[in-house]
Amino acid sequence: MMTLFFLLLFAVVSVVSAADDAFIGVNIGTALSAMPHPTQVVALLKSQQIRHVRLYDADQTMLLALANTGIQVVVSVPNDQLLGIGQSNATAANWVARNVLAHVPTTNITAIAVGSEVLSTLPNAAPVLVSALKFIHSALVAANLDSQIKVSTPHSSSIILDSFPPSQAFFNRSWDPVMVPLLKFLQSTDSYLMLNVYPYYDFMQSNGVIPLDYALFRSLPPNKEAVDANTLLHYTNVFDAVIDAAYFAMSYLNFTKVPIIVTESGWPSKGDSTEPEATLDNANTYNSNLIRHVLNHTGTPKHPGVAVSTYIYELYNEDVRPGPVSEKNWGLFDANGVPIYILHLTGSGMVLANDTTNQTYCVAREGADLKLLQAALDWACGPGKVDCSPLLQGQLCYEPNNVVAHATYAFDAYYHNMAQAQGTCYFNGVAAITTTDPSHGSCIFPGSGGSNRTMVNGTSLAPSSNSTSSDCASQYFYGGGAFVSSMIVGISIWSVVFL
Question: Does 353 reside within a domain?
């Protein structure tokens, strides 16, 4: 039994580790009449636990503000610099020296996006696109940074033709002289295809063919799902269909090992009279469902369980961006850092619980394994130094008397005791951040503004290898003889896999 429990725990750990690459990031546009100072931007990123950002340039002040934060940064070569870099190895090397080498390792630059949607918006630069990527990569090789910093270029999904059914999709063949060497480069450098995916535009341009629910990730009855007749794969949303179309388009060119990262996706929260579905509710629904879809590692029908990391477009509403009303209203926040809407993210992960009143809570993840919850509860009430006395029989938070409710209290107490720091609401994957106050009756949770604050000062984000549980931990155990096993396992491996 003990051996089986160890194996189960290590199996869970290996799955979590394998899936850790999946993330949600945000794009940071700057077309604001009152653009916040980079230090304010970084403060907002930290408050929202955003660990991945994409810049549309390599702004020096922003890169300095991001230093020593650990936030992973994609910097970009703007389109107006692409021709020069694509025609000169020396120009590319100078760009890398000025915008990358001057900032690493204190600023965690992990990728360079060379241009943006070049094939569809700047076709005259297409002949030098692959050269630009190669020149940038060569400069990284010379600096021994090529394994740390990937090089790619974002594409509009419009370069994929006949995207449904996905199995018949292919890239616009007029771009084969660019796409084939580009995909060879991405494959040889272990990089990824950057793709901008906008179900909003697919919906708007479909003239009613695409249902709104299908674009928004809303649940569909089986008879409403789109079925690829060639593969019999069922598609419940536009996003997955576009991603799989890209996979099939690459395989048509004999490239099957190039992963995809979505560099832009989102939904506008406001539009003019010709954009009736650009609403707060639809924007909230799309982005909330997108975040949940990515962080739950759902994957696509073609590659289930292989999550596609995605950057949401975008952090701020850009009030001076030209174009229709919707172009100005893709942001999650206004220029003052006030959320445009509060995302519906209960139980979905650790990022963008975007209530800037700081009222976020750490709860037991829905459907979490009860043995892992119990072990996490034991740790929180022991080495985690949470005062779990309110969970004792007859105390304010004893009812409901089950491991989910008690673990939620302990998780939230630890999370607030550690000042809601990054990584303090994880507990081996059985915890999640929410903006919904879990307080009930007279049981007031930490962070809710109530008076029932029962935390004690903690000293570390994770237990050390020689940590032991307190004697009181057994008072919060529910059922069976697994308690001793969970305690031994907790002592042995929580420090390796917990936070």
Answer: no
